[in-house]
């Protein structure tokens, strides 16, 4: 009898333990499921948006985003980022972040994407200067200028005046072709500092500029030496011919008259006296 009671009690205890463990497992599963499904709103682009686009409810939408995975600079309401312009292109369903937007007072279009302290300067180009149309928005270029050296006659010089400059626009396009096709345009707009803006303006006005396309990841400045036309087109080992110096237009002054010396003896005293040579007038 004691053995039977012990077995019955043990069986009951096992059943109770199984029921309790099953209850605890279901509770933990529900809690984990609830945490996994907690979401918050996230503002994203409703369609692909190019650089400079002003945001409004027509090109934005809100999606559910895991609440435990916040994104720095994210927006949860469309009205918080409306009327601000993009300073970079975004893809469809890409989150709209504060770092991708210009200031509220910056407006829209090209002016909104110019960083504070920088300038946008446009220069006329042709197919050769524009590297066969491959100088497109977002690419990086060096600017070379060829001009005549002051006081050197017809001797010309080519030097690199700017390095690693970003192209803001090609013609009126601020977005690069998605297939990477070249764009032949008459004008290229570059992003430069105020000091470089003056160099670029002088070079394009007084000389002939040429753009050199570079890899966007190559940011090293080389500062190449200038090239003189007289050196580039001279025979090997020949020295460049210097331009003759300009005459002042006044005749050179005559050399001073030579003097002659006479030894004068006075008693025991000797001395040399100099007398200028007489000149005829």
Key traits:
Type Iii Antifreeze Protein Isoform Hplc 12, 281 residues, 3 helices, single chain
Present the secondary structure layout.
Blueprint: H1 2-37, E1 39-45, E2 60-66, E3 119-124, E4 140-148, E5 156-170, E6 187-192, H2 194-206, E7 208-214, E8 227-228, H3 229-232, E9 259-266, E10 269-276
Antiparallel strand pairs: 1-2, 3-6, 4-5, 4-7, 5-6, 5-8, 9-10
What is the arithmetic mean of pLDDT? 81
* Overall number of strands: 10
Bin the helical content: 10-25%
Largest sheet, described in full? 6 strands, antiparallel
Per DSSP, the total helix count is: 3
Beta strand %: 25-35%
Unreliable runs, pLDDT <50, ≥5 residues?
none
Structural category is: alpha+beta
- Computed CA radius of gyration, to the nearest angstrom: 41 Å
Distance between the termini: 164 Å
In short, what is this structure?
By secondary structure, the chain is of the alpha+beta class. It has helices spanning 2-37, 194-206, 229-232, and strands at 39-45, 60-66, 119-124, 140-148, 156-170, 187-192, 208-214, 227-228, 259-266, 269-276.
Would you kindly provide a written description of the structure presented here, covering whatever features stand out?
There is one protein chain. The chain is α+β, with helices and mostly antiparallel strands and 281 residues long. Among the domains are: 40-112, Antifreeze-like/N-acetylneuraminic acid synthase C-terminal domain (Type Iii Antifreeze Protein Isoform Hplc 12, Alpha-Beta Complex), CATH 3.90.1210.10; 117-232, no CATH class. Helix content is 19%, strand content 27%. The protein has helices at 2-37, 194-206, 229-232, and strands at 39-45, 60-66, 119-124, 140-148, 156-170, 187-192, 208-214, 227-228, 259-266, 269-276. Strands 3, 4, 5, 6, 7 and 8 form a 6-stranded antiparallel β-sheet that branches. β4 and β5 form a beta hairpin. The longest helix is centred in the N-terminal third of the chain and has 36 residues, at 2-37. The model has no long low-confidence stretch (mean pLDDT 81).
